[in-house]
Each structure stands twice: as structure tokens, then as C-alpha cells.
Prior knowledge:
By secondary structure, this protein is an alpha/beta fold. The chain contains eleven helices and eight strands. It has helices at about 15-35, 55-60, 90-95, 105-110, 115-130, 140-145, 150-165, 175, 195-215, 235, 255-265, and strands at about 5-10, 45-50, 70, 100-105, 130-135, 180, 220-225, 245. Bound molecules: 2-phosphoglycolic acid. The site of 2-phosphoglycolic acid (PGA) has 13 residues, from strand 8.
Amino acid sequence: MQAWVIGNWKQNPATSHDVNVLLDDLLVAVDAEKQAAIEVSKRCTLMVAPSCIHLAAVNARLKGSSILSAAQDISAHSASTGAYTGDCSAQQVADTGATWTILGHSERRQYHNESNDSLVKKLTHALTQNLGAILCIGETQAQYDAKQTLDVIDTQLSVIKDLLAQQPDLIASLPERLIIAYEPVWAIGTGKVPTVAEVSKTHQHIKQKMASFAEAIDSMTVLYGGSVNADNADSFASDPMIDGALVGGASLKAESFLMIAKAFSSANI
Ligand code: PGA
């Protein structure tokens, strides 16, 4: 199975200049891999998710490279246009050349009250505009301590069940166009990580849950996210249940991002 390493840049970098510096480093490093014939991208799909304001410029620079791009969110209100101040639609995102969008990130759930209802709408908009969706799920520290991880995940994954009930025609696109990212909220940006065994068990549960919704999604790609870095990537990559990583902080330096991609790429040989 092809691995995926996705850089979630969040509200970074601050300027277009710094975006270009990061892209320069990334493109040079990916090219060097190519020259050395150890092309990471052959076994590991690389993707970056810049802030919406930088998406078009990033895509112009990524044209012709093997690196894909994603938005960090899309409008729940309209797939196309409308009077929704501050929103960016799936069609507008796709028009920049992006092919994916992150949805349901815990920071969106926390600061923007993202609900399962709005996620069903966003998933529908993404898929009908030919954007893939990286759906983020994960429990808080309190839920982890109370051993509620799998219950929380089941509730968050019910958006897929609701989506299929409302839009049964979308089922065919899901194996190729949906990725689940398991991100324990307490591991995001904290340097704390669950054990690989814990992540593996949770991923197995996610895959089984998805398969219970429809036969077509019986081998879902499931990424781990939360304080993944160049030092711990090998251990996550070594587990067959972990199909890649959604990386925040460590994706803001080309070197650490590429080290993580190499870990998943080598584990996939
Ligand atoms: P982190 O963020 O790698 O900085 O913990 C991950 C994420 O929020 O996607």
C-alpha cells in the first residue's frame, strides 16, 4: 500500500516570502531524492496543506512536481458560490489546483464548533467537486483518561454512515478519495504521543468500523497525527496498521518533513 505523509501548515508561515523559502527547500530536497534514485514519492505520496490565502501560489509552484496539495477546510454552506463571508468553497479550492482538503481537524472542532452535521455537508461538497477528503478524528485527554477513545471515534466516524445514507452515489469515490487521520487531541503540538501499539489498535478499530458501513471501504487508509517528528516516525512507520502521517509542526521544515516521508517510504519497501 502507498504511504501518505501530509504536512498541515495550519496558520503558517506568516508571509509569502516564507512560504516560498519552505517550498524552495522542499522542492530541492525532493529533486535531490530523485537524482539519487531513492525517490521517496514512489512509495509515499507527499502532500502539503497551506493556509487558504497561499493555496493558489503554492499550487502554481508545485505544478509538475510529485507533491500534492490540500486546503485545510472548505465551506459547509455551498460547494460553489454564495453570500458566505469568509468562506472558501470546494470549487474555489479545486480551481487553485488543490486536489484534497483536510476536514474536521480538532482545531476546527474546538475553535469553530465543527459538528457532524456540517462535516457531512463539507464531505458532500468536497467529493462532488472531485476533492479528496482527509477526515480528522480523535479523543481529548479527558476522554483518553476515561478510556472513551473508541466510543469517541465511533461517534465521529458516524458522519460517514450519515453521508452514505444521504448520498449513496458517493460510495464509489470513497476508497480513492477519503483518508482518515487519527489524531488524539492531547498529542497535537504537545510532544506527547500514544504508544505505537495503542495507535495500531485504534487504527484497526477504525478500519473495521469503516468496513462495517460498506464493503467498498474495507481497506481504508488511516494516518496517525500528533507530534510526529523525524525521531519517532520510524516507529509509527513500522506498524502495518499505520498508513502514513498527518504532520503539523515538523512539516514546517523541509528536512524533518522529508525525514518522516523517508521513514514511511522505507517501511513500505
Ligand atoms: P503536530 O500537529 O504534528 O504539530 O502535533 C498535527 C496536526 O495538528 O495535524
